[in-house]
Amino acid sequence: MTKTISTDLARVSFANDGKPPTPIRPHLFAATLNQQLQTKLDPTQVLEMFRDAVTEAVPGVGVHFDGSVEGFVFSVGANGPHVANYNLDVDGQRMGSIEFGCEKRLSAKDLATIEDLLSALAYPLRNALTHFEALRAAQTDPLTGLFNKLAMTRLLERELALTRRSGQALAMLVIDLDHFKDINDAFGHIVGDRVLQTVADRLREVTRASDYLFRYGGEEFVILLCDGDQAAAMKAAKRVQQTIRECRLGDGEGGLIRVTASIGLTQQCDTDSPLSLFKRADLAMYRAKRAGRDQVRASPYT
After folding, report:
1. Which are the contacts of 67, defined by CB distance < 8 A and separation ≥ 6?
2. CATH class of this structure's domain 2-138
3. How many helices and strands in the chain, by DSSP H and E?
């Protein structure tokens, strides 16, 4: 059975069976938790703090949240045979659903405790999810839906730190579409935008889930290849090159637009900053341009 937790702390409404509201008596624990949750704007941190409070009150419970915000799911703890499901609403707006799983049957007291704590979660989680959406929008290119330059800088700092600790390889591809200005000049910016969107879609298809894909700006894209050595990175670059060659778009006049790209490749070294890593890959891309375009050039580490 699924319940809906509203922002009115005095009631829990049943979503399925139409039973009357069940009264909730907020406890000091829930009030204190609400104050603590309001100090966080990261939805993962909010839910981790909430999970800790739930497991302290009802040991052995796992928590899974499936939010209305695309790209955010939280799951931690056991998924036992006994579950309780709730829909979370704030001011009439659905935030998502949350499930509690446990190996033992949840008693009426357990459920009352969970519902009490859920009443403390609603507004802090709503605020954190709103913040999450705003950050994602600021780091997303509106034309292609890819990460943008701001997101690349932030992610690079994190990934470089991780590779220094783990010793795993990190490589970067800088991809620049050849003669893109000519496409805009000949067919207009609407067709040029379609080319960029099509290339972005094709790049998504050949990028692994563990890698990152960005639109750096203009007709330039960047792929960050995680856990790949020089040979694997070159293989990936050749695959990207071929994928872009296979893009064919109508020009609106009965012809086809052929798209190619110049690609620069480099690998991370221990002293790299986000800027130095990008600069090497970018210089390698310009070498590919000068060598005749539609090719891959690799840069040494320094």
Report:
1. 43, 73, 74, 95, 96, 129
2. alpha beta
3. 8, 13
Domain coordinates in residue numbering, the chain = 2-138, 149-298
Look up the CATH superfamily of 149-298.
Reverse transcriptase/Diguanylate cyclase domain (3.30.70.270)
Which portions of the chain are predicted below pLDDT 50? Answer: 1, 5-26, 302
Q: If phi over 0 gives left and psi between -120 and 50 gives alpha, with beta otherwise, what is residue 188? A: left
What are the Cα distances from residue 119, in Å, to 50, 65, 103?
11, 15, 24
Strands 296-298 and 261-267: parallel
Among candidates 90, 111, 113, 244, which has minimal Cα distance to 176?
244
Catalytic residue among 70, 99, 219, 220: 219
- Is 219 among the residues known to form the active site? yes
Neighbour tally for 254: CB within 10 Å: 6
Query: Which tens digit of pLDDT belongs to each residue from 165-187?
Result: 877 889 999 999 999 999 999 99
Question: Quick one: pLDDT at residue 132?
Answer: 82
The two tokens of residue 296 are 């891959």
CB under 8 Å, gap of 24 or more: what pairs does 189-193 form? Answer: 191/249, 191/251, 191/252, 191/257, 193/143
CA 147 to chain CA centroid, Å, is 9
pLDDT score, position 14: 31
- 219 neighbors 203 (Cβ within 8 angstroms): no
Residue 221 confidence (pLDDT): 98
- pTM, two decimals, is 0.66
Residues 6+ apart with CB under 8 A from 250: 256, 257
Contact 257, 187 (CB under 8 A): yes
